[in-house]
């Protein structure tokens, strides 16, 4: 899932937190603008106004920096919807994903991180962790629906949530179909229909 908090969010913390925030901001900008190949630690240190030695000591490699960026994005991700209606919750999830992927910065950033994951093991592992965290967060709306009797017992909550976002990523990376609210709503409705039919 890519439902992250607004770009530029400032969180409290000491010097270490400020250094991390500055470096990750610079890394995100570089990734969004130029891709993983542009993730040069010396240039990131300069752009973030941080000492080069600090950056190399803390992160060491572009892959480690990309991994920390994903960890930070997971930390800032918005919590799941809790409307009490699984159809509404899944629709909210789909719209958040579509909104993130069409955001001028976030969309490019995720494309760069996905591309990085194909050639860098650290980035791949971090991307898998990111999506595991987001799927686990949103799976709660499905388990709540099962507990209410709205979905069949034994429904795999994580699979349902993954089914919501899969068509959106397919459109982003393969077909180029516009990521509209209508597409998001259809993805949510299809996942819910499969869950209600016991297919998930």
TrEMBL record:
Keyword field contains Transport: no
Segments forming domain HTH tetR-type: 17-77
Pfam families for the chain: TetR_C_11 (PF16859), TetR_N (PF00440)
UniProt xrefs under SUPFAM superfamilies: Homeodomain-like, Tetracyclin repressor-like, C-terminal domain
PROSITE patterns, per database record: HTH_TETR_2
Known DNA-binding region: 40-59
UniProt xrefs under InterPro entries: Homeodomain-like_sf, HTH-type_TetR-like_transc_reg, HTH_TetR, Tet_transcr_reg_TetR-rel_C_sf, TetR_C
Residues that span the membrane, as ranges: none
Keyword terms, alphabetized: DNA-binding, Transcription, Transcription regulation
Domain of life: Bacteria
The protein's name: TetR-like C-terminal domain-containing protein
Organism classification: Bacteria, Bacillati, Actinomycetota, Actinomycetes, Streptosporangiales
